[in-house]
Amino acid sequence: MSTHGVTLPVGSPARAPSLAAASFRIFDLSLGEMLWSRRSVFLGLVVGAPVIIAVIFRTVELFNLPAFRLNGVRVGGNVIFGGMIWLLYLNIIVPLLGVFYGTSLMADEVEDRTLTYLFTRPIPRGAVLIGKYLAYLACTGLILLPSVMLVFFLAAPLGGGGLPAIARGFPDLLKDLGLLGLGLAVYGSVFAFIGAQLKRPLLIGLFFMVFWEVFVFLLPGYLKRFTVAYYLQALVPHAMPQDGVVSAVQSFFKETTSPVTSVAVLAVILFVFLSLAARAVDRREYVLEQ
Hints:
The chain is an all-alpha fold. It has one domain (17-283). It is built from 12 helices and 4 strands, in the order E-E-H-H-H-E-E-H-H-H-H-H-H-H-H-H.
């Protein structure tokens, strides 16, 4: 008996694919569905908001008016771009992408009653979660990257910097992209666990994002060290261009850890929650409502 050029003995059962191979199959199946879902259309509009703000800044610049001033000093375009990365993307858009996509990785399959078809295939159940998580990373990256690049090319030349300002800001752009990618990965793993373990995961995820990641982070004391935002914000001054505005950001986050410690802790959070999410999918009995 021959399958794809490989001869198997008659009557021998086909081997189940490995976890990596099965995860890739689920990734390939899920990516297109995620990209063309109504959720992606809605979040695409949300990601477009910073582009509109950058267009407004450029329009103001055309009338020979400074787009932004701080204490009477004209702020350069690269600093404006870094501020938008910090305020809009890292604090609002990245957590939103994480909560809306992460909590739905398994919940959508349950709601659409398609989970049975995935679980009846000869693949590890945890591979369903991992494959859909990888599809989430690719999907959110494809949604976020055009927005960030448009904002960069619109905002970096502000203040009369022109092409030299774009060239100077490119290394900081790479740092920003890495920071955003890390945020998407970590938030996605946390919300994937919530979606795999709990009922009504979107409501719980939104509560976690607003109460824990915002309210608790702003509280004085050590409790903020148990938030993802604490370690992501510690990396912000190292990703933004060095300017007087950066010192203001650093003064706001007085209690921060070193970049190495922050990256290490975020990597541990990602691994632990993604492992727990895959374990939850492997052991949980999902009941499909009629």
